[in-house]
Amino acid sequence: MLGEDEVISALRGAGVLNAVQWAFDAAVRRSLDDYVPRAGYDEQWLGQTRYVLFRDRLDRVFGCQNYDVGPGDEQFGEDELFAELSPLDRTGMPRLPAGTVIRDDLNGSPGWTFAAWRLLLTSGELGRLEYVPWSQKSPTKQAVARQSGKVDPRQGALFDAEALMEQPESEVELDKHTFVIAHALDAVASSSELAVGLPRQGFRGEKTWHWLHFLDTGLDGTGTRDDVLDPAGPAAPASEPLVKRRAPSSEGNARRASDER
Known about the structure:
This protein starts with a helix and ends with a helix. By secondary structure, it is an alpha+beta fold. It is 32% helix and 15% strand. The longest helix has 20 residues, at 43-62. The protein has a six-stranded mixed β-sheet with strand order 1-2-3-4-5-6.
């Protein structure tokens, strides 16, 4: 099993984590700028928009899809690359060498590959990213949570494991180590969270990652957490983000509809 230090060090050294942070912050800023509840926009719209913009900004910063350029042509097509970006996002956009990261979807789920590792996206609830319910995600995400171990047979009677037990493992095959970028946003609290980790299956109430590395985001109320999570232990109070809380909203349903493939 690939450990946090190895993966994070490699991603950071290549500029990939910095690019992910830029893409997320750019997507959040634009979606919040356009989010006007009095005009009729609701949290379902906000969740879907944030996801689409995050995917687009990742393609931009990695030079994928419509923003693909060849080696040595990094300056080509900047009008398209910077289209509709704010001055802040234009000046802050990292520039990675072409081909550092390539678009590499998995069964329709948007993905990006660096070296021999794939990164997928998933959304979650602010302050609860450690507890992503993989059994409620797509078969693809369930397979990613299974990649480093088989389902514990004791989980058959537990609610969170039932969907995992019912999903045949043969339906989704992973061709490389796959990690997940988890993200969350609370518009009312003006707070967000962003992390990269290796998912795991677990009992209901347990943390569902072998490890989860939190990254800085551009909204107030969040910070960096470099701790390695203990899957069986309770959440450490000191590692919790200092953000406002509110009751779960309809955005959770919007997130599952938008990016869980």
